[in-house]
Every structure is written in C-alpha cells, then in structure tokens.
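In response to a reviewer's request, we include the raw inputs and outputs for one of the modeled complexes. The two entities were modeled together in a single run.
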Amino acid sequence: MSILTVDLQDKTFANGLQAIRELSFTVQSGEFVALVGPSGTGKTTVLNMIAGLETEFVGAIQAPREALSYMFQEPRLMPWLTVENNIRLVLDAPCLQIDSQRFARMETLLQQLGLTEFRGAFPKQLSGGLKRRVALARAFVTQPQLLLMDEPFQSLDEPTAQDLRQILLQLWADTRPTVVFVTHSLNEALQLADRILFLSARPAQIVLDYSVPLARPRSMVTSDLQALHSQLLQQYPQLLSGSLKEI
Amino acid sequence: MKVWWRPRVLVLISCVLIWQLLAWSLQSRYLPTPSAVLVTLWQQWLTGDLLYHLSATLGRVLASFSLAMLIGVGIGILMGSRQRWNEWLDTLVIIGLNIPALVTIILCYIWLGLGETAAIIAVAINKIPMVIVTLREGARAVDKDLLQVAQVYRLSFSQSFWRVYWPQLYPYLFAAARNGLALIWKIVLVVELLGRSNGVGFQLGNYFHYFDIKGILAYTFAFVALILLLETLVLRPLEQRLNRWRE
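The model returned the following structure tokens for the whole complex.
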C-alpha cells in the first residue's frame, strides 16, 4: 500500500531558477527510501513540499500530514526549552492530546537514546550528537506514519554519525514508520535504505530507482556494502553527479 | 551574587560624599546638604504626603506603561511580520517618534479634558512608537525555522504563538520595558505638573514656586529609588529567570 505519492511537474523559484521538472515517485508503507543527489538539486525542497511547508509548485502530493515528523538538517530545538520540554512541546499538539500513552513513550525514548540524565539540560549545553538524539526523540515520540529526514547527521564526526544511524535503524525497526531520507552520501544511503532514488542535477529528475540488495539487520561497515558501493559507481561513474551516462 | 552590588553601592556612596562636601564648602541655600534633604524626606513621610504623591504617580506610571506596552507590542509584531502593515503604518510611527511630549500632553488635555484619562493616554502615546520600533525589530528577527517545526508538528495557533514565537521576543520586550519605565515616569511628572492636583510632578511644581530645592530633591530621590527598586526586584529577577537557557 502506498503511503506517499509525489507527482511534481514543475517547481520554479521566484528568481526564475527551475528546481524540479517531472519528478514522480511513490513510497510504500513502512519503506525506508533514500533520496540521493548532488547538492543544490532541490532535495530539501522536495521534503518541504511533502511536509506542506512549501506550497507553491505545479503538481500533486499525497502525504499523511496529520501523522508526519520531520528531522531537519539542523536539530532546530527550542533553545529556551529543556530537552524534556522540547519533546513535550510536540506532544501537546491538539491531535496527540487524546493519546494517553504519549508520556510513557517519551520516557522510553529518553531511556533508549541515553537522554535521561540530560532531560533538564538546555540545548546549548549539549553536544551536536546529543542535540540530534533529542531531535530524533522528538521525531519518533509522535509515532509518525511518515518521517522525513534532511541530511540529519551531515555535520557530525563519523563515529557519532555512525552511532546515530544505528539508533535510527533500531527505532525504525521498532515502529516501522515510512522514511524518506535525503543525503548526498551513497554510503549512508546504502547502509540505511531499502530503496534509493538517485536525482539528477537541477532541474531534479529521478535518474535511477535502485533497490538495495542487502539483508537486514545490516552491520554498518561491511565488505558487502563496500563491494556494492564500488560496483554501483563502476556501472554508473557519473551517478553521484546525477547522470547515468557512461564515460 | 556577592560581587554585583559592590561597585553600584560604592558609586552611590561616593556621589553622596562629594555632594555633601560641595554643599558644606559652598554654604548656598540653593544647594542643600544630603542630610537636610533626608530630613525633608522623613518629614514628608511622617505627614503621609510622600506616600500619597508617590502612589499617585506610580499608579499613573503603571497604567500608562501597561497601555503603551499592550498597544506597542501588538502593533510592533504586526508591522514586523506583515510587510503590508509596515508600509501603511511606518510614516505614522516616525511622526509619533518625533512629536514632542509636551505637544501630545497639551493636546490631550485640551481635547479630552483635564482628567486622569487624558493624562494616562498622553503619556502612553509618547511611549507607544518606541515600543513599536523595538518589537518590530524583534518580530523581524524571529527564527522562521523554529516556526516551521511548530507547523510540521501540528501545534495549534496559540501554542505556536505562545511557546515558539513569543519566547523569541523576550529580549526585545525587556528592552522596551526598561526604556519604557525610565521614559514614562519622566513624562508622567510633566503631565502632573501641567494638569493634575497630586503626584510627584504636582509637588515639584509647588516646591518650584518657593524655590524649595530640598523638597524638589527629596521627591526626586524618593521616586528614583522606587524605580530602582522595581528594576531590581521585578525586572532583573524576571529577566534572569527567562534567560537561564543562555548560560
């Protein structure tokens, strides 16, 4: 059953720049999809359209906006709220108030993510990795059907990013939300996703729809993964700059 | 906590000392000694006059302060967040900033009658444009990224406003309140001098008739002390509490 349908004809910014032309895909319920493409190709714009933050475009999108979470590139925590209150903030949304399990879920997540001792801390006192954990907790605590992620681990050092990817996969396995994960790292996409959509340079189109032939649970650095990585790039040397052309 | 008051108190004490020495050496009836002023202050307190006039003035200060903040904050937010409103009201704000306080006071008294309402409105009108300008700055500096978080996580309008938007205005609110208190009580004295029969301004007018410098200084210091007290006991602790997350 498809939970997300994106059918975009055109997105042109006010300055005349065409970001997207003829971009369509559907995502099945529970699927983990990565969007990979060169930077500046409008990946964030696509997520913003799905989330309903960007409304001026030609095309149609069907998405469960009433049960959607979005983890932005920056953690975007309210700096004046403690870790706990940042999570409580989204739990107070009118649509969640009937959910009597929500605070129990918050406690579980705080524990799972190792945030219990930081619950009274303000974001400014946390490291980059911890801030991402809070953002993850906030994204999962609402039990989204659809989770959008915009290069959430990009500016972290590799071990920390690797930890967070593990945590993400664990949380995902627990509740199986549908995930659309934007990244420009092929390795990250291969580690996380069931399916990778490779985007072209602007105006963005899908150049390759690729199902990742790796079983779960995946360990993070394996020879399988590396073999797959080099095999893909051998087959399509221009893939990461958004083209299937062979040299 | 221990250190902050020492320089403040030292400066105060040395000012009083210099004044005392100067008054002793000049021996003029136009520069009474601090002790003579203190005696006058005490006599005024004993007769009840001091308390009567101070509270009349304080009441007017608080009334016009609240009125000015309420209106100024509302319009300031509107102008800072809606370009259309800003275009329409900007000229009025600049005119408002430049009308002399005395003119608004006189006109209010003439048009509204020599009453309490006219006095309070006249003072508020003088302050409103400044509040507007400060809060407009604040509204323009609001982080749109955080508002997107509120939108994506489906917070209601009032939740988004009070828990995501409003806290970002605190620094600007405090700036407006601080400057407001300082400006407003000065204007209130003028209003009282011109058209009220009680309050510190009215008393200063009386003392001026008799060139009674002791009385003038006694009332001035009493009210300055009151404003300092407000600042130390209300504004500063409140600000510290709300700014905890910045540490």
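As requested, we also summarize the result in words. Residues 70-195 of chain B form a domain with the MetI-like fold fold (CATH 1.10.3720.10). Chain B touches chain A at residues 145-146, 148-149, 151-156, 159, 163-164, 167, 170, 242, 244-247 (CB under 8 Å).
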